[in-house]
Amino acid sequence: MISKHQLIQKRIFDLTASLLLLPILIVPIIVLVIASTLDTIQFGVFTQVRIGQHAKPFKIFKIRTLKSEEHLLGHLNMSATRLGRFLRHYKLDELPQIFNVIIGEMSFVGPRPDIVGFADELRGEDCIVLKVKPGITGPATLKYRNEEDILSKQPNPENYNRTIIWKDKVEINKKYVQNWSFYLDLSFLIKSLIT
């Protein structure tokens, strides 16, 4: 099980690495925000409430990839733009999460932060997943890298997500917390960069 000392070690790495990367990433982030603003005709930074460490809600930062389209009946439909699909495919929409890491809401590696109604409803032994900060990448994120494609092929995507994918993610993330090491985090970072 990850200890308090290891959590501090993990935070020191996250803060150091994110501050070193920020000067390199800031220009690409600004360019993508401007491109997204022009593409979606909305401000290019998207925020959404996610569940973090100890089930504390926080706002995650992403490059906006969806464009609102108002239909004749007045319903609002969200669809990814061509640029948005490109950004999502290469995970470039997640670059602004470096600010979540700097603030201390996220880690480079950890369980992917979910919307309200998932991690905040964990009970019993499953709650150990909440001992660590959510991550930009991690073992479950890598396994379900093509989650959108998997769900698009299901007759009932929401039910499949809750009953199959979410349960598997919890088990994967429990093992991650139980067996954490600095080298384990490095291995997930390397896998994320090369896959």
Automatic annotation (TrEMBL):
Its EC number is 2.7.8.-. Residues 10-193 form the Bacterial sugar transferase domain. The keyword RNA-binding does not apply. Keywords: Membrane, Transferase, Transmembrane, Transmembrane helix. It holds the Pfam family Bac_transf. The chain crosses the membrane at residues 12-35. It comes from the Bacteria. GO terms for molecular function: transferase activity. InterPro entries: Bact_transf. Belongs to the bacterial sugar transferase family. This is Sugar transferase. It comes from Psychroserpens luteus.
